[in-house]
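Team,

Forwarding the record for the chain on the shared tracking sheet. I've put the sequence and predicted structure together so nobody has to dig through attachments.
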Amino acid sequence: MYSALSLLLTARHVAWMPPDGSLRGPIVDRLMFWNLIAIIAAAVISHLWLIFALLRRRSSARRFPSPIRWGLVGVFCVMYAWMALTAQRLWAANRFTGPSLTAMQVEVVGEQFQWYFRYPGPDATFGATRPQLVSAAAGNPLGLDARDSGGNDDVVSSVLVLPAGREVDLQLRSLDVIHGFFIPGMRLKENAVPGLVLHLHFTPEKPGTYPILCTQVCGMSHARMQARLMVLSPADYTVWLDKRARARRQQEGE
């Protein structure tokens, strides 16, 4: 309790959360801050209540004032209702409300113990994949089907690179087991489940490099399943994507 109280007292002056780089990040941080206040207040009040109960045994004439008791209950009920509504709206904005029609499409694929990111290219269409073609050693970790022309311009990267200020629709899937896709700096978390394609959209705002982690214990080397998110300016992102596309064409030409 004392460490939590110390954290609360300094929360406004130090970076008690990872740097926030997403559009809705401040809302999440504010909700987390008030959650911390509620937890500390509940801990303090419960300890005081226990002390009062012990002292009351010695003096049965003492009674905890009923208005104060019900007032505290009312305060906690109002705070809980406010936090529940805020969390529900935030969850709905990320999970139930679809991305805009102009949102950028990126596929995120988890496999023991690596993250892969696929971009659809100028045709804005992902090429077909087949499980039997998956072979990281052969340079085809996602099993792209060369017979599908829609995948000829697809770009696959082990680093997630996004332009700042543009909404992104992530399509998450897994090739083997459940993986937890987590970007602390974007306040973003969703599971990649085999057999399902789950969507998650957000808008990166601040250029920089952010760690990507796996939050599900997916095997012996789970701790090594990490990647990076690089948020670039729109111009730098275009340059990066063009370089990746040219590198793939040269590789296929060989």
